[in-house]
Structure formats: structure tokens, C-alpha cells
Amino acid sequence: MLLHIIARGKIARSPEGELLDRYARRITWPFRHSELPDVGGKVPPPAQTPSRDVLMDERGKAMSSEEFAALLGRWRDEGVRECRFLIGAADGHGEEARARADHLLCFGRMTWPHLMARAMLAEQLWRATAILAGHPYHRSG
Fold it and tell me: For this protein, what is the EC number (predicted)?
């Protein structure tokens, strides 16, 4: 299953970009990172079907790493070919986008900078795939 982060804005060369790249290199599943302009530009249609759209949204569901891994594992086992994680611009996502999404996910009730959210998401994607592979990186307590 392709794990695809689609984010508004440019990460360019930055500490957050380096962190994103570091975790992206560790992900053993197919992975892609795409950027859209801050304003305008359409989210591309899924490259493969069936797919799932996950909006990173402060109103979304907070999940443990194990729950997130289980969700990705279930979608993979159901034959989902692409899971797209959408990170909005400064004002987030509109109601229409929320209604269309397959899942709303948050990193807690705090607001995170968009560049940090990308790096955090990449780390959680690596952690989830490591959990599913039985890799010792994740320690549950």
C-alpha cells in the first residue's frame, strides 16, 4: 500500500524537511510526499484505487501508535492500494473536505506547525509499519 503525504506549502531545505526525509527513508512500504501551493491547486486524484483519504485535522481522532498501525494494517489487508494523508494550509480543511474524508486524524488537541506535522506524520508512518513488521523500534508500555 502506498503511503502518500500531500501537504500545502513548501518544506524546502529546513530542519523539518531533513527530519521528514530521515523518517521517509526508513519506511519500507511504498512512500510518496507531494506538495501543493498554499492557496489553489487541487488535490490530485488517487494514483491507484481503492484508496483512503486521511485528513490531518484538529477535530480528528487521536490514536495511539498501535491503533494507527492496526488501522493501516486493516486497510492494507482489505486491498487498499493508496492511503493519502492530507495536511491543509494555515486555516486547515473546509467542511466539504472533512465530509469526504475516510478518516480524520489529529496529533492531539494542540495546534502543530504544518512543517512539524509532516515530520511527525512520517515518523508515525515509519513506527506503524515497524509495528506491523514486528520491528523492535516501538516499545509499548
Answer: 2.1.1.177
Task: Judge whether 52 is annotated as a binding position.
Answer: no
Closest CA to 19 of 125, 103, 110, 135: 125
Annotated binding residue 129: no
Please tell me whether 56 is known to bind a ligand.
no
Confirm or deny that 120 is annotated as ligand binding.
no
pTM to 2 decimal places: 0.91
pLDDT tens digits along 130-139: 999 998 776 6
**16-39 as b/e: b if 16+ CB within 10 A:** bbebbeebbebbebebebebbeee
